[in-house]
Amino acid sequence: MSTSDVVITETRTMPYGFTCGVVAAAGAFFGLFVGTAQGSGFAGIALGAALTAALAYLAMAYLGTAQERSFKWGVIALFAVAGLLIGGLPGLIVGGLFGWFIGWFIYWVGRCRYRMTLPPYLTGGQVLWHYSFRVLCGAIFVFLITPILVVMPLSFNAENFFTFTPEMLAFDPEGYSLRHYRNFFDSSEWQQALRNSLIIAPIATLLAVTFGTLAAIGLSQPHVPGRQVIMAILISPMIVPLIISAAGMYFFYSRIGLQGTYLGVILAHAALGIPFVIITVTATLVGFDRSLTRASANLGANPVTTFFKVQMPLILPGVISGGLFAFITSFDEVVIVLFVGSAQQQTLPWQMFTGLREQISPTILAVATILVGISIALLTTVELLRRRSEKIRGMSPG
Predict the structure, then answer these.
(1) Which residues cross the membrane (predicted)?
(2) Which of 8, 34, 42, 261 is the most buried (most CB within 10 A)?
(3) Could you report the per-residue pLDDT of 34-61, keeping only the tens digit for each?
């Protein structure tokens, strides 16, 4: 049995007014969206609040827990049918999901189940904060993830539109296509931009990992004077706005002949990636046992051998994590390459930016979906490496 399944506080039936009020607020919130879509937000609020409050009173006053399962299935069916009548198949799915939620929510509130896993001595304000904090975090997550969830299905649009067509909303297979992905792989402009990104990002990452790792190891030594100041300078590209860094690099590179060259773009992206490597490697070195390097030196190993044979294997997860962050930064960066690069160094983000300004095409959405997939895969790798690093340093019992 998991910790969340342990009942600490016994349940009880809450006052009908409290239950109906809370459930009505949830219904009004949902009704606002439905009503706005139908042309009357106020009517949606009123109808949603009244309907959900009535369902809550019916469940608590007449049905109780004996009919809980039947009531929940009935609520799912009710809202699913209403959604089907209002919005077709998508409305059926959304209505069914909301019916499941409101059926669960009524008994969760009405039977005081929100206190089951909480200590009984908590005040009402503490309980409210406990759940408000989680709702706020969930709302922020939804706010951040919604654009991605919108872009990905739109990339399969069979038409040259940036909106959901009636066929897509009806889940008609004719409304979906891979044509924009084919356009990406068949277009010479997109492929040249992809090649540039695949040339610039790996080399910039290699430079960032090399210099960032050496800097982190050096700054981890307690005898280095001015460590805090040096660290602040090295991670400043993460803090200074990109537009300022880009303008400064443009004027500097113009004077030394690096503006409009591959080398200039690579060096600029490496400068952006170094702070990520320094931070992740420094975090890995926090739990590093320095007696290992002293033991290696006592056994006759030179500093280079000690680094590659003793220190590097232990900090490798942090090095790889920093390298992945540096690669993502370079692969997705557009502001600096606009200043430092030229048409010959046009990368994928630059091509996407140009496409948005000059030729609106859903191919941009297909490319965005591919980049999102790459980023998710790389960040998943970073998380796995972080857990492995914690296990190596003995910080995690798993």
Answers:
(1) 16-35, 41-63, 92-110, 131-156, 198-217, 229-253, 265-288, 314-340, 360-385
(2) 34
(3) 888 788 888 889 999 999 999 999 999 8
